[in-house]
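Entry type: protein chain
Record version: 2
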Amino acid sequence: MNWSVRIGSLVMPNPVTVASGTFGYGVEYARLLDLNQLGAVVVKGIRLEPVRGNPTPRTVEVACGLINAIGLQGPGVDGFIEKYWPFLKTLQVPVIINIWGCTVDEYAEVARRFDALEGVGGLELNVSCPNIKEGGAHFGTDVRLLEKVVAACRKATRLPLITKLSPNVPSIVPFAQAAEAAGSDGLSIMNSFPAMAIDIETRRPRLANITGGLTGPCIKPIAVKLVWEAARAVKIPIIGMGGIQSAEDALEFIIAGASAVAVGTANFYEPQTSLHVLQGIREYMQRHGIEDLKSLVGAVKLPRV
């Protein structure tokens, strides 16, 4: 049975990874599950300098989901290399570093710094976070800026690039195509939706940042649709994400066109979800006599019109 996934020169031993921002820097989960059973470990977003993030409260539960406004808190490139890389480089599976910046030059510089770090599996370009005032989603909702960011990072590194797209665009197709044309080796679809919750007793927003990004099971059908639309428009592999809690959820993404999947919000309440998803995909492949998972990617049967 073959279920490995290739993204540029990056080879994931299986199709299940974790979504950036929901899994810390891996070390926080190391006592809760065997990280080497994952297809890859994707770490929190890193920019050039340390970031304090947004004031608290930063998270609020809503029906079938979570709104967060962490604000990409992180130690910066130097802090990440000093504090977290000694652990991450011992893993037997690829480590994908999520990177971001406030300018095109900063994105490229962060990519250049990690290009020089031995053992990095790939870079995920975060051009779609809704929780910061500069950078982030600004680059993910302007197709020309998106293309500039990807092209600049492409020039700065030989590492596999995976561009994480925003759902907050009229059509994801031109953004997926622009990322591919600029040199991205793969796509992550999708990031969170801007959202808001209000305490009716105090009549105040429940997040200090007022708004945040909505994730969890409530966004899964939207993410499946975006993966399906993008997969019909590009040839590079897609990592599908958005509300995955089970193997059945993950298989929907794969049948829609994703080559791999990432578990996100579920990591907060059931850290072993990704391993359960992996086992469920294995059982599905065995039950249906599927020898190679690639044969299932994009296998959705559409009605004749």
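Comment: The first strand starts at residue 5 and ends at 7.
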